[in-house]
Amino acid sequence: ITVGPDGNLWAAAEPVTNTSTFEPTATIIRVSREGQITSFPIRALRSTDSLSGITIGPDGNLWVGVLSGQADGIAGLVRVSPAGRVRFFRIRAVSAVSPGLSLAAGPDGNVWIAGAGTLRGVNVKPTVGRITTTGRAKFFPIRPRFGPMGEEYFESIVQGPGGALWLAGQS
Hints:
By secondary structure, the protein is an all-beta fold. The mean pLDDT is 77. A four-stranded antiparallel sheet has the order 1-2-3-4, with no helix packed on it. It has a four-stranded antiparallel sheet with strand order 5-6-7-8, with no helix packed on it. A four-stranded antiparallel sheet has the order 9-10-13-14, with no helix packed on it. The protein contains no helices and 16 strands. It has strands at 2-3, 9-17, 24-31, 37-42, 50-56, 62-67, 74-80, 86-92, 101-105, 111-115, 118-119, 122-123, 127-131, 137-141, 153-159, 165-170.
């Protein structure tokens, strides 16, 4: 959950199966200051995908991470304008092995992603990624200095004072 640039609360809701189509649909929810709830369905997701992490991007839109529940490592990001326009970016990056996905606006005008996952089918835990506001992604495997090798992962990323990005994780 986060406060959007429009002053409303925004949240990412897990897929719920539609009783008429039997298709699971994840939803971005906006709650106005007056308590009015508006849902924005994300139809591009697969039934095994889940939402994780929400932030305000450097472009003034909300960005939501999508974790893949399949071994192909194809996940994505959803960009939602304050008016509710939804755009889905499918990217090969973070897979179901990821325990979480955190997003932060970076000082360089990109959205940064922290988690664990796969890249082209190879386990590269933990992972940090950068996605432009037009949907171009690049991922960087990083070897943290904590925990037994192969058991560490990032849980959170945030822009700190001075613009530096900070990562937190566990093993």
